[in-house]
Design brief:
Layout (H helix, E strand, L loop, with lengths): L1 E16 L2 E17 L4 E7 L9 E7 L5 E7 L3 E5 L4 E8 L2 E17 L2 E11 L6 E11 L2
Antiparallel strand pairs: 1-2, 1-10, 2-3, 3-4, 4-5, 5-6, 7-8, 8-9, 9-10
Length: 146
């Protein structure tokens, strides 16, 4: 059985290109925190906005019982990635401009979620052909919506 709870999600994304820090992106949005009781897994989901440039996209991050994060985007931007510390993942991201080949090397996956909310952190490097590698630290803090 799945339990859903409305939540407030604080998102901070820090990025580096060639060692230079790009201005961090800080957002606050509403979404859902869902508990899959049978598998003891938690999912944070929210709709993207104009602030991210992905209107019409839904993002879901599922913290698995193994400690991995399954990151899925559906809608105008589509992406399906499994973040597993030390894992090198090859995938394609569907954008309004066509398919984009991407390579992701995950160096950090941390998460503590409960019915009271919690935190989720990802550290990874993203490579796109003919572009500089981008290192990202993504932090989500989830709290119950009152």
């Amino acid at each position: 059985m799945n339990k859903e709870k409305p939540v407030i999600i604080h998102i901070i994304s820090k990025q580096w290109v060639k060692g230079e820090v790009i201005e961090p992106v800080k957002l606050m949005t509403t979404g859902l925190l869902t508990q899959d009781e049978e598998n003891n897994e938690w999912t944070i989901s929210y709709d993207e906005s104009e602030a991210t440039g992905m209107v019409g996209t839904k993002t879901s991050l599922r913290l698995t019982k193994e400690g991995h994060v399954h990151f899925v985007r559906t809608g105008s931007v589509q992406m399906d990635v499994l973040f597993e510390s030390g894992n090198h993942f090859l995938t394609q991201m569907e954008t309004p401009f066509g398919l984009l080949d991407i390579s992701i090397l995950t160096n950090e996956v941390k998460g503590t979620l409960s019915d009271q909310g919690g935190e989720l952190s990802l550290g990874y490097s993203l490579n796109v052909p003919r572009q500089e590698s981008v290192s990202t630290k993504l932090n989500l803090k989830v709290e119950p919506k009152t």
